[in-house]
Amino acid sequence: MKIIDKNSFKKINQYQYFKTFADPTYGFNVKIDVTNLINYIKEKNISFFPPFLYLVTLAMNEVYEFHLREENGNIVYHEIINPTYTVMSNSGIYYNARTDLTPTFKEFYQNCRKEIERLKNKEEIETTYNDDDYAVYYMTCVPIISISGMNHPIPSYNHTSCSVPRVCWDKYIKDNGRYYLTLNITVSHIFVDGYPLAQAFLNLNKLLNNLNSILDN
């Protein structure tokens, strides 16, 4: 991680203005065509979650602003941001999981599946929820229902937590021969304005159109 000198931070006016907000977060809900990925997972006989999580993580890591965090009053840049996500165990308890980004999708897929299976069989009650590692983004999905948007729980005046992006997607559905889902990405306006947020979605679309070169490794 790298602490950025506020005197040289180009968007210091934006940073200072939105820090006065109790909740400076906002998000886009975008319809994503995942037809190519559905065809791919059917061909490879694998689950949908790990490859889509991998692609979303790659797309977000390509945007500079998504690496910025507010920590201990500092502007911090993290070289890589990794996904944390929730897993429901067989007993109905939700646990936080994490799978770090890897150079190859094969390794990421194996690590992700291993983590999910580990937590599915866990039954202990945990007294903490999130740790203090902010080189991450928070992710959840609702694969049993189609939704048009998502509002994330955001703590007031906690700009460290607010600076961590939130991601949610819903159940993919078929429409006129194509498969779609709604993807929400919520960010803090302290660091991320509309253009870089839109760029994350555009990056994802490009990745979805070049699946084999990315996932077949």
Structure description:
The strands form two sheets. Strands 2, 5, 6, 7, 8, 9 and 10 form a seven-stranded mixed β-sheet that branches. A three-stranded antiparallel β-sheet has the order 1-4-3. Helix 3 crosses helix 6. It has helices at residues 12-18, 35-44, 49-61, 105-120, 159-162, 194-208, 211-215, and strands at residues 2-4, 25-33, 68-71, 74-77, 82-88, 94-98, 136-142, 166-170, 173-175, 178-188. The chain has 217 residues and is α+β, with helices and mostly antiparallel strands.
Task: Please give the count of helices.
Answer: 7
What would the principal axes of the Cα set say about the shape?
globular
Question: Mean of residue pLDDT?
Answer: 94
H/E order of the elements?
EHEHHEEEEHEHEEEHH
Radius of gyration using CA atoms only: 18 Å
Q: Label the structural class.
A: alpha+beta
Q: Which regions are unreliable across 5 or more consecutive residues at pLDDT < 50?
A: none
Classify the beta-strand content into a percent band: 25-35%
**How many β strands by DSSP?**
10
Query: What portion of residues is helical?
Result: 25-40%
- Summarize the biggest pleated sheet: 7 strands, mixed
The span between the termini is: 28 Å
Topology:
Elements: E1 2-4, H1 12-18, E2 25-33, H2 35-44, H3 49-61, E3 68-71, E4 74-77, E5 82-88, E6 94-98, H4 105-120, E7 136-142, H5 159-162, E8 166-170, E9 173-175, E10 178-188, H6 194-208, H7 211-215
Helix pairs in contact: 3-6
